[in-house]
Write a structure and sequence with these properties.
GO molecular function: copper ion binding
CATH architecture: Alpha-Beta Barrel
Number of helices: 8
Number of strands: 8
Helix content: 25-40%
InterPro entries: CutC-like, CutC-like_dom_sf
CATH topology: TIM Barrel
Organism: Streptomyces kanamyceticus
Family: Belongs to the CutC family.
Protein name: Copper homeostasis protein cutC homolog
Distance between the termini: 16 Å
């Protein structure tokens, strides 16, 4: 039996989460403050969402806009708080001034989440060397996904990179699943799926009326059908 592709949807609150699950999402990325491109939600928000849906929840660990870690101790405290509330999947990713992975911050958070599965997010699209970043992170426990558009500008710009990386699946540093998001459109899906990509991430595409409106279950269902088609 074939395993269906993953459809991950950004959720800001319980209303988003319920709609996304109703539309067929497999997993949610939980964030707050999309004006800052997605920050860590409160433990109360996590708890409310966890009580309302039964699909996987990946919680963002990020306290400020940009890809610098900032206060690592504060990030670690938030990770511990969320773990104590039951969170068991996370999203994180930080770069140093040279554009490499901030290993001090990443390793501190990986230790804090203590074996949980996690996604390295679109910081990879700002990295000085994507291949080197992957190899530096390759041995960290729990890393099972890269959320990427292939380029800082989005999937349109990054498509050649995404196809090349999909072809390298299973090589050292390329074992984690490619989760494609960042300007992703329905017309991108056929080529990505043909290349073997089996995980897709949407935010604004799940909200036809914009970020001030909630997730639309119908919009998610349209994506579910396209991902499965």
């Amino acid at each position: 039996m074939s395993k269906r592709a993953v459809l991950e949807v950004i959720a800001l609150d319980a209303e988003d989460a319920v709609a996304a699950q109703a539309g067929g999402a497999d997993r949610l990325e939980l964030v707050t403050d999309m004006a800052a491109d997605g920050l860590t939600p409160s433990r109360e928000t996590f708890a409310e969402i966890r009580a309302r849906v039964d699909i996987s929840l990946r919680v963002m660990l990020r306290l400020a806009d940009g890809f610098a870690a900032g206060d690592v101790d504060a990030l670690v405290r938030r990770a511990h708080e969320l773990r104590s509330e039951g969170a068991d999947e996370f999203v994180l990713g930080f770069l140093d001034e040279a554009g490499g992975p901030d290993m001090t911050a990443v390793e501190a958070l990986v230790a804090a989440v203590d074996g949980c599965r996690w996604t390295f997010h679109r910081a990879i699209d700002r990295a000085a060397d994507r291949d080197a970043l992957r190899k530096q992170l390759a041995d960290l426990p729990g890393l099972d996904t890269y959320l990427t558009a292939g380029a800082a500008g989005g999937v349109d710009d990054g498509l050649p990179t995404l196809l090349a990386e999909a072809a390298r699946g299973g090589e050292p540093g390329y074992e984690p699943q490619l989760l494609i998001g960042g300007g992703l459109r329905l017309d991108h899906l056929p080529g990505l799926k043909a290349a073997g990509v089996d995980a897709f991430h949407i935010g604004g595409a799940a909200r036809p009326d914009g970020w001030d409106a909630p997730v639309s279950a119908q919009a998610v269902a349209t994506w579910r059908a396209a991902v499965d088609g």
